[in-house]
Design brief:
binds coproporphyrinogen III; 50% helix; 7-stranded parallel beta sheet; 11% strand; alpha/beta
Length: 348
C-alpha cells in the first residue's frame, strides 16, 4: 500500500506511526561541548545556568548543531535541573564536576519547596522556544523536554549526581509518603512546564528518565511508571496532539511495561537494549536509539558496521535514529558528519 506522507517532517511522520526512509535523526545533547562554537558562547557567561536563562544565547546554541548537520529536529537548550531551581532549591553546576544542589532530604525540606514562583523561572525557556521556532524550517520540529519526576528527585534528594541513587531510594523506602509528595509536586510542575513549552512552539516533547534503571520492579511501577503516566496524561489533557517520547534509561525488561502503561508515543532505548528487543517494542510504538555514544567517539569501520545493523534491524518500522545516551564532549565532529551521511544514504 502506498502511504502518503503526513507532513514534511520525518520525525513527526514517525511519531504518527509511519516508517520513513531514511529515518529521522537527532542526537541527545546535540548542542554542547563537542562543538567549538558552543564553547565559544559558553565562555561568554560565567555559569551554565546563566546560559540556560539567557534566551538569546540559549536559542543560538540550540541552532548551532542544525547549521552543521542535517538533523531532523532541534532540542531546546536547557537542563532538567531547571525544575528544582524553579522550585526554589539552590542549584549550581561546578565546572568539571557536574551539578550541586542543596539536598532536600526530609519531609520538612520537601514541604518547603515552593511552586508559586516556578512559572517565573521557566519564562526564559519559553522565550528560547519562541526564538528558535521562528528560525527553524517547517520540516525541523523543536523538541521540548523535562526530566522525569524520579530522575529529577534523585538529584534533589542526593544533592547531585550519584552512582546508585541511594539517597533517593532510601528516602522512598523509609518515608514513602514524604517521597510521594515530592514526586507529586514534580508531576504538577513538570506537566505545566512541558505544556507551556508546547504552547510556545515545541512540537514534540521528551521525558528523560536517566535513572529509571536503578529501581526494582515494584518501585519502578511506583516511582517511574505511575508518575510518568500522570505527567503524560496531564500534558495530553491540555494538548492532545503533542507527541511525547519517553526515555527510561536502563529500564531493561521493564521497558515494555513502561511503553504500554505510561501513554507515551515513542520510547527512547539506551545502548544496553538489544536491537531485537527494540524490534519487539516497535510492534507497539515507534522506537528511538540506541547507538553507543562511545562508538561515535571511536568512529571508523566499527561505527559504519553498527549503524548498518541498526538501520537494517529497525529501519523498516517507525524508527528514530539516536544515541543510547547523550553525545560525549570528546566526540570528533567528523564522526557526527559521517553518521548523518550514513543514516541519510543507507536505505534499509
Ligand atoms: O540535548 C541538548 O542539546 C539539550 C540540552 C540538555 C542539557 N542537559 C544541557 C547540558 C539536555 C537535554 C540535558 C538533559 C540532562 N541534564 C539530563 C538527562 C539526560 C542524561 O544525560 O542523562 C541529566 C541527567 C542532566 C543533568 C546534568 N546537566 C548533569 C549530570 C550535568 C553535568 C554532566 C555534564 O554532562 O556536564 C549537566 C550539565 C549540562 N547540561 C551541560 C550541558 C550542555 C554541560 C555544562 C556546560 O556546558 O558547562
Amino acid at each position: 500500500m502506498l502511504r502518503v506522507p503526513l507532513s514534511d517532517s520525518l520525525l513527526l511522520n514517525v511519531l504518527a506511526g509511519q516508517a520513513t526512509s531514511p529515518p529521522p535523526i537527532w542526537l541527545m545533547r546535540q548542542a554542547g561541548r563537542y562543538l567549538p562554537e558552543y564553547r565559544q558562547v559558553r565562555s561568554k557567561v560565567s555559569s551554565f545556568l546563566d546560559l540556560c536563562r539567557t534566551p538569546e544565547l540559549a536559542a543560538e546554541v540550540t541552532l548551532q548543531p542544525l547549521r552543521r548537520f542535517a538533523f531532523d529536529a532541534a532540542i531546546v537548550f536547557s537542563d532538567i535541573l531547571i525544575v528544582p531551581y524553579a522550585l526554589g532549591q539552590k542549584v549550581e553546576f561546578i565546572e568539571g564536576d557536574g551539578p550541586r544542589l542543596e539536598p532536600v532530604s526530609d519531609a520538612k525540606a520537601i514541604m518547603g519547596l515552593d511552586q508559586a514562583n516556578a512559572g517565573k523561572a521557566f519564562g526564559p525557556v519559553y522565550e528560547t522556544v519562541e526564538r528558535v521556532v521562528a528560525e527553524l524550517p517547517q520540516a525541523v520540529p523543536l523538541i521540548g523536554f523535562c526530566g522525569a519526576p524520579w530522575t529529577v528527585a534523585t538529584y534533589m534528594v542526593e544533592g547531585g549526581g550519584s552512582k546508585d541513587q541511594a539517597a533517593a531510594r532510601l528516602l522512598a523506602y523509609r518515608q514513602p509518603e514524604a517521597f510521594q509528595r515530592l514526586i507529586d509536586l514534580l508531576v504538577e510542575v513538570s506537566a505545566d512546564y512541558l505544556t507551556n513549552q508546547a504552547k510556545a512552539g515545541a512540537r514534540v516533547l521528551q521525558i528523560f528518565d536517566s535513572w529509571a534503571g536503578s529501581l526494582p520492579e515494584d518501585e519502578f511501577e511506583r516511582w517511574c511508571i505511575n508518575p510518568t503516566k500522570k505527567l503524560v496524561g496531564q500534558v495530553k489533557a491540555a494538548i492532545p496532539t503533542v507527541p511525547i517520547i519517553g526515555f527510561p534509561r536502563g529500564a531493561g525488561l521493564l521497558a515494555e511495561r513502561y511503553a504500554r502503561e505510561t501513554g507515551i508515543d515513542a520510547i527512547g532505548c539506551d545502548t544496553s537494549m538489544p536491537v531485537g528487543w527494540m524490534q519487539r517494542l516497535q510492534v507497539h510504538l515507534p522506537v528511538q536509539g540506541n547507538l553507543d555514544p562511545l562508538l561515535l567517539v571511536g568512529g571508523g569501520e566499527a561505527l559504519d558496521v553498527r549503524v548498518g545493523t541498526i538501520l537494517e534491524t529497525l529501519g523498516q518500522q517507525p524508527f528514530i535514529f539516536n544515541l543510547g545516551h547523550g553525545i560525549l564532549p570528546e566526540t570528533p565532529i567528523e564522526h557526527v558528519e559521517r553518521l548523518v551521511s550514513l543514516v541519510k544514504t543507507v536505505t534499509p
